[in-house]
Amino acid sequence: MPDNKAILRDMYAMLETGEIDAAIDQYIAEDFVEHEAVPGMEATREAPRQIFKMMQTAFPDLAISVHDMIAEGDKVAARITFTGTHSGEFFGVPASGNQVAMDGIDIMEFRDGKAVGHWGVTDMAGIMAQMGAGPG
């Protein structure tokens, strides 16, 4: 039985270093479903690919910190923080040069060593404020 926590940790490490296509191709199933609504993106395996490419452009020094990871059956829940310097456009907000931190919770469902579903909660209001695009 695959170690889903180790798979998710490895996927985060690859995403952090910019190996986005490799991470998606290796760890995300073809029939993956994205359950976290992302404006303008389909709920397929292309959503995480697009999101992380957008994040890599906006935050070239992106770091992903994993604070907690809990596995139950075929699901892994992770409490994470993305940090980086806002150096490019992100969801229409031009580069501010600000250091930002975005907290999130990911729940990944796995089958045969690949993610088949994702549910997430991300502090978008917090990051928008840190970029200067909302109330602080």
What does this structure look like?
By secondary structure, this protein is an alpha+beta fold. The protein has four helices and five strands, in the order H-H-E-H-E-E-E-E-H. It has helices spanning 4-16, 20-27, 46-58, 124-130, and strands spanning 28-34, 63-72, 75-85, 99-111, 114-122. A hairpin with a 2-residue loop joins strand 4 and strand 5. The termini are far apart. The relative contact order is 0.19.
Fraction of residues in helix: 25-40%
Q: Mind summarizing the main beta sheet?
A: 5 strands, mixed
Distance between the termini: 45 Å
Beta-strand content estimate: 35-45%
Give the strand tally.
Answer: 5
By DSSP (H or I, 4+ residues per run), the number of helices equals 4
- Overall structural class, as computed from helix and strand content, comes to alpha+beta
Average residue pLDDT: 94
Alpha carbon gyration radius: 15 Å
Biggest sheet strand order reads 1-5-4-3-2
SSE string, helices as H and strands as E: HHEHEEEEH
Instruction: Detail the poorly predicted runs.
Output: none
Shape: globular
How would you briefly describe this protein structure?
The chain is of the alpha+beta class and 136 residues long. It contains 4 helices and 5 strands; from the N terminus they run H-H-E-H-E-E-E-E-H.
Summary tags:
single chain, 136 residues, alpha+beta, 4 helices, 5 strands, globular
SSE map:
Elements: H1 4-16, H2 20-27, E1 28-34, H3 46-58, E2 63-72, E3 75-85, E4 99-111, E5 114-122, H4 124-130
Parallel strand pairs: 1-5
Antiparallel strand pairs: 2-3, 3-4, 4-5
Helix pairs in contact: 1-2
